[in-house]
Recover the amino acids of this structure.
């Protein structure tokens, strides 16, 4: 009797396995594949690929970098926003590796760099990353890259202040002040703080015991370099940029292609989309579409 019960239970389990395998492993994939072949859905199912002269040149859903092999921006092309999707082996210094998507996992309180004795082991904070990118983009586009809480050298303007503290944790009489993101022998962005000389940071030294004080500086809050130019998207593969970021690139691209800024701006306008349904998301510029049309209408000569 027990043997019969055991046999029936296992036979029922086997039947369930066969039926579910047929449904979820064969029938469902075939149905999904069939639906994906319907007109209007096939291109999306294939990755929303963009073709030129019969060859795929990208996807309308996945961004790509317009840089040389070393990660430097090509002046004749509009640049995408930064990407955190870079393989660990360094083979894609500009990111945009679709097999390595991900976010930076850093928040607004990440303001102190890790300065190791070996520079290759140092890790910039989110603040320094933003400051560095803003300075580089400002120099590339001919605008001011200055931002609040950034030093003129392009790192986070952050001090570690040491000294006795009151009940609220505030330092009452500073005895030592260190610019924690400026490694020696760099000259600190501030000569003195509350009457105490500011020192540069010694790599490998832990300044966590000090009170961390970000210094805003005098840069305007509304900077010419927009936030999407210095921060990556959640996936690291965003194919769009803001109209503000596109605007500051127009002059450079026009000069590289030997055309007027108005001609380039007209191409950008043709690839600018507004908010979905009039209120969802933000206006955006399709970088791949702009660059492809520029290559077609105003190719680089020589």
């Amino acid at each position: 009797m027990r043997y019969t019960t055991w046999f029936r239970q296992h036979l029922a389990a086997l039947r369930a396995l066969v039926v579910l395998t047929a449904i979820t492993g064969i029938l469902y994939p075939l149905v999904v594949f069939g639906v994906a072949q319907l007109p209007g859905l096939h291109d999306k199912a294939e990755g929303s690929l963009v073709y030129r002269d019969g060859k795929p040149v990208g996807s309308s859903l996945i961004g790509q970098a317009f840089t040389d092999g070393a990660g430097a921006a090509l002046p004749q092309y509009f640049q995408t926003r930064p990407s955190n999707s870079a393989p660990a082996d360094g083979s894609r210094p500009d990111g945009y590796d679709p097999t390595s998507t991900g976010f930076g996992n850093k928040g607004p309180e990440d303001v102190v760099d890790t300065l190791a004795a070996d520079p290759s082991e140092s890790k910039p904070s989110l603040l320094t990353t933003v400051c560095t990118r803003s300075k580089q983009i400002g120099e590339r586009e001919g605008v001011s890259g200055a931002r609040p809480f950034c030093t003129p050298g392009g790192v986070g303007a952050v001090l570690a202040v040491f000294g006795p503290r009151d009940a609220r944790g505030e330092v009452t009489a500073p005895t030592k002040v260190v610019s924690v993101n400026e490694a020696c022998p760099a000259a600190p962005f501030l000569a003195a703080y509350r009457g105490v000389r500011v020192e540069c940071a010694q790599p490998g030294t832990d300044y966590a015991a000090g009170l961390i004080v970000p210094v805003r500086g005098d840069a305007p809050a509304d900077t010419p370099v927009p936030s999407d130019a210095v921060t990556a998207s959640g996936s690291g593969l965003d194919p769009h940029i803001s109209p503000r970021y596109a605007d500051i690139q127009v002059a450079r691209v026009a000069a590289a292609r030997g055309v007027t800024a108005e001609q380039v701006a007209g191409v950008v306008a043709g690839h600018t989309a507004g908010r979905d349904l009039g209120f969802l998301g933000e206006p955006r510029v399709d970088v791949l579409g702009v660059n492809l049309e520029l290559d077609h209408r105003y190719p680089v000569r020589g």
